[in-house]
Task: structure prediction
Amino acid sequence: QVQLVESGGGLVQPGGSLRLSCAASGRSFNYNTMGWFRQAPGKEREFVAAMGWSGERREYADFVKGRFTIARDKPKNILVLQMYSLNAEDTAVYYCTATSRGLTASSLDSGEWESWGQGTQVTVSS
Result:
C-alpha cells in the first residue's frame, strides 16, 4: 500500500501563494498518474490538477488554469502543487491522490483514483 502525505497548507491572504507537497512512500511506487483534488465545506470533492508520473502530460481544472502548477520530483516521489493568486473560493481541504491508470477524461472523477492522502487545509482569508 502506498502512503500519501500532504503538507504545506495553511492560512493565506487573498492574492497570496502556497505550495503544497505530497510525499509518496510504501511499496514499490508504480502509479502512472498523480493528482490533486479539493473539497470545500458542503461541496463535493472536485478535480484540481493531475499529471502523468513520467511528466509527459498535465491537466488542470478550468478554475485553476494560469494560477496553479503541478509538478513532481520523480527521484524523491514528491508531487507539488504551486498555487498563486489565491482567492476565497480556493478555501478547501486539498487531497493528493494516485492511480495506476493513465491520465484520461475519467480522471476528473474521484472514483477513478486508487490511493488518497489525509488532506491538508488551505484557507484563503484576510
Observations:
- The chain has a mean pLDDT of 92.
- The chain is about 0% helix and 50% strand.
